[in-house]
């Protein structure tokens, strides 16, 4: 599943090819994504210039002169730029043709993604109640501490709650909790301010490192048929249940929290 760093890398990859370009046509081959692609998307977008490409949580906001295309990559979606006229393969559902001769092609085998149109995207129901971006000053350990008081839920699903902070997916929550030495099963309300300050720093660090590594994959958004996958960040615990901890050698354990597998080190994380 594309996580926040992959979405941000997508934004950085496509933005220079979209910003300032006029859309000549939108071709939709299959409207059945998580929600149907609006019937009038071609009419709304064609003829308009794309002004900016922004990101909010895992939503890409392709801002036209009037209105915004809100796109989400779902479980298996990707966006890349190809030459117009390139035949569409299976699962390549949408082409947004530009006056430059390129087109933005949306591919999504599992069709859990989204392409929606909004005149006021930040007030769209999908975006309205989102918490702060993790890499901004609006997110810090003090926020985690304050919002967690009285909460009995485990700390891992707490930091993955989009109302608390957006974009902390399973891989990054797992790694940040390990780096901060916090047991993912611990009740959110029982963790000290000092430990939350450390945890917030680690969340920012793992996400920033992944985005930085994504920069090396930017060429994949132009021409080639490879899709950006997970970045080759060194993982200490995610996906390593049963293997030895890279720090202390203890066997890593897995527990299910909030319906997600959570790997942790029973000695390093308390
Ligand atoms: Zn350990």
From TrEMBL:
Which reactions are catalysed by this chain?
2'-deoxyribonucleotide-(2'-deoxyribose 5'-phosphate)-2'-deoxyribonucleotide-DNA = a 3'-end 2'-deoxyribonucleotide-(2,3-dehydro-2,3-deoxyribose 5'-phosphate)-DNA + a 5'-end 5'-phospho-2'-deoxyribonucleoside-DNA + H(+); Hydrolysis of DNA containing ring-opened 7-methylguanine residues, releasing 2,6-diamino-4-hydroxy-5-(N-methyl)formamidopyrimidine
Q: How is the cofactor bound?
A: Binds 1 zinc ion per subunit.
- HAMAP family reported for this sequence: Fapy_DNA_glycosyl (MF_00103)
Its needed co-factors are: Zn(2+)
Q: GO biological process annotations for this chain's record?
A: base-excision repair
Q: Which GO terms describe its molecular function?
A: 8-oxo-7,8-dihydroguanine DNA N-glycosylase activity; class I DNA-(apurinic or apyrimidinic site) endonuclease activity; damaged DNA binding; zinc ion binding
Database matches in SUPFAM superfamilies: Glucocorticoid receptor-like (DNA-binding domain), N-terminal domain of MutM-like DNA repair proteins, S13-like H2TH domain
Instruction: State the name under which the record lists this protein.
Output: Formamidopyrimidine-DNA glycosylase
Question: Ribonucleoprotein: is it a keyword of this entry?
Answer: no
Q: Which Pfam families match?
A: Fapy_DNA_glyco (PF01149), H2TH (PF06831), zf-FPG_IleRS (PF06827)
The EC number on file is: 3.2.2.23, 4.2.99.18
The protein's matches in Gene3D superfamilies, at most eight in alphabetical order, are given as: 1.10.8.50, MutM-like, N-terminal
The alphabetized UniProt keywords are:
DNA damage, DNA repair, DNA-binding, Glycosidase, Hydrolase, Lyase, Metal-binding, Multifunctional enzyme, Zinc, Zinc-finger
Occurrences of domain FPG-type (ranges): 236-270
TM ranges are: none
**Start and end of every Formamidopyrimidine-DNA glycosylase catalytic domain?**
2-113
Give a yes or no for keyword Protein biosynthesis in this entry: no
Q: Which PROSITE patterns match?
A: FPG_CAT (PS51068), ZF_FPG_1 (PS01242), ZF_FPG_2 (PS51066)
Subunit structure, briefly? Monomer.
| The encoding gene | mutM
Cite the SMART domains for this sequence.
Fapy_DNA_glyco (SM00898), H2TH (SM01232)
Q: Where is the active site?
A: 2-3, 58, 260
The similarity annotation says:
Belongs to the FPG family.
Q: What does this protein do?
A: Involved in base excision repair of DNA damaged by oxidation or by mutagenic agents. Acts as DNA glycosylase that recognizes and removes damaged bases. Has a preference for oxidized purines, such as 7,8-dihydro-8-oxoguanine (8-oxoG). Has AP (apurinic/apyrimidinic) lyase activity and introduces nicks in the DNA strand. Cleaves the DNA backbone by beta-delta elimination to generate a single-strand break at the site of the removed base with both 3'- and 5'-phosphates.
Print the organism lineage: Bacteria, Pseudomonadati, Pseudomonadota, Gammaproteobacteria, Pseudomonadales
The UniProt record gives the binding positions of DNA as: 91, 110, 151
């Amino acid at each position: 599943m594309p996580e926040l760093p992959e979405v941000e890398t997508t934004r950085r990859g496509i933005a220079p090819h979209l910003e300032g370009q006029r859309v000549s046509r939108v071709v939709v081959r299959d409207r059945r994504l998580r929600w149907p692609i609006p019937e009038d998307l071609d009419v709304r977008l064609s003829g308009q210039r794309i002004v900016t490409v922004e990101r909010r949580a895992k939503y890409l906001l392709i801002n036209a002169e009037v209105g915004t295309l809100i796109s989400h990559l779902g479980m298996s979606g990707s966006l890349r730029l190809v030459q117009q006229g390139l035949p569409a393969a299976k699962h390549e559902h949408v082409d947004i043709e530009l006056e430059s001769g390129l087109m933005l092609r949306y591919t999504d085998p599992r069709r859990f993604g989204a392409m929606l149109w909004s005149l006021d995207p930040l007030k769209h129901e999908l975006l309205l109640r989102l918490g702060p971006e993790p890499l901004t000053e609006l997110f810090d350990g003090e926020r985690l501490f304050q919002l967690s008081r009285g909460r009995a839920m485990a700390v891992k699903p707490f930091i993955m709650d989009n109302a608390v902070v957006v974009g902390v997916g399973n891989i990054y929550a797992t790694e940040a909790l390990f780096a901060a030495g916090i047991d993912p099963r611990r009740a959110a309300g029982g963790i000290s301010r000092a430990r939350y300050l450390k945890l917030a720093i680690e969340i920012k660090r793992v996400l920033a490192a992944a985005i930085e590594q994504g920069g090396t994959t930017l060429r994949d958004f132009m021409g080639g048929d490879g899709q950006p996958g997970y970045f080759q960040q060194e993982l200490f615990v995610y996906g390593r249940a049963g293997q030895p901890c890279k720090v202390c050698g203890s066997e890593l354990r897995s527990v299910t929290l909030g319906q997600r597998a959570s790997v942790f080190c029973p000695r390093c994380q308390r």
